[in-house]
Design brief:
Blueprint (H helix, E strand, L loop, with lengths): L10 H26 L5 H29 L8 H8 L8
């Protein structure tokens, strides 16, 4: 069993994790569209795509931009870690 504090380094486990994210994303999208299918309009579809795009860009900003451009000396483990660092509650490890 992998301890929760360890990073996943196994290529097989990383691919499995990516596949699971893909299954969750496709499954939840299918369920969402089935739920709104009777009232689905172009406006709802456009708002859904805008929401998806905005969250993808926010995720990219939180991890790639912050880590590579805003603060290259700090590695973020997740959104909570990023929030604690930005709020000053977590200091850089030297």
């Amino acid at each position: 069993m992998i301890p929760f504090s360890m990073d996943i380094t196994s290529p097989r486990l990383l691919k499995l994790k990516a596949a699971l994210f893909l299954v969750i994303g496709c499954g939840s999208t299918a369920l969402l569209f089935l739920a709104v299918l009777p009232v689905l309009t172009w406006r709802i579809g456009a708002l859904f795509l805008l929401c998806l795009w905005a969250f993808c860009r926010a995720y990219y900003f939180c991890f790639y931009v912050m880590q590579h451009y805003a603060d290259p000396g700090f590695r973020y483990a997740g959104l909570l870690d990023l929030f604690l660092h930005l709020s000053g509650m977590k200091k850089k490890k030297v």
